[in-house]
Amino acid sequence: MTTKNKKTLFLISGILTGIVFISSIFDSEPGSLFGSIWLFRLGWLIMTVSSFASYYNIKKSEKESS
User: Fold this and answer.
1) Which of 33, 34, 55, 63 could form a disulfide with 40 if both were Cys (CB 3.0 to 4.6 A apart)?
2) Which residues, in sequence order, are CB contacts of 6 under 8 Å at separation 6+?
3) With 60 as the cut, is the pLDDT of residue 32 above it?
4) Where residue 9 falls among pLDDT bands split at 50, 70, 90?
């Protein structure tokens, strides 16, 4: 998988997990993970942040190599 494909994949996954995280905050009857809604939300937040961090790291390394 090329760097451009990975960068795009991380951006898309960051956006999608961010949407799930935000919708879980506004959901009146949210789903749960191991019985705790906050653990569920924390998991989605961690996935969102890690996806965007990976995206920016790849973007930064592309700029440095240019």
Assistant:
1) 33
2) 54, 58
3) no
4) very high
Distance CA 40, CA 33 (A): 5
User: What pLDDT score does 17 carry?
Assistant: 94
Q: How far is CA 34 from the centre of its chain?
A: 20
d(CA 30, CA 27): 5
Distances 47 to 6, 18, 50 between C-alpha atoms, Å: 15, 8, 5
- The residues that bridge with 33 in the sheet, in sequence order, are 36
Note if the pTM is more than 0.90: no
Residue 15 CA to residue 12 CA, distance in Å, equals 5
